[in-house]
Amino acid sequence: MSTSLAPLRAEIDAIDDEIVALLGKRLSVVHRVAQVKQAEGLPAVLPDRIEAVKARAAERGKAHGLDPAFMATLYQTIIDEACRVEEGIFAAGTQDAPRS
Questions:
Q1: Is residue 73 part of a domain?
Q2: pLDDT greater than 90 at residue 98
Q3: Considering the domain boundaries, does residue 97 fall inside one?
């Protein structure tokens, strides 16, 4: 491996660690969202909210020089996982907090 690439790769690894931690934090909030939705009789999946989140991500990404199409694709994946988690909570009929 090139010695000049090593510090850059370490920097990328550190950023990736932050991204993973933030995704974990986001999914922790998703668990709480599912609990509120269950308590209030709301459906697990709210299509209008999904579109709003993707649009916001595309706009925010553009402000950081990121391709809006990339951001929409990335957030579709993140949202798919959030919906999967929420639907699992609904199916289990549980309001237990996630275990860390």
A1: yes
A2: no
A3: no
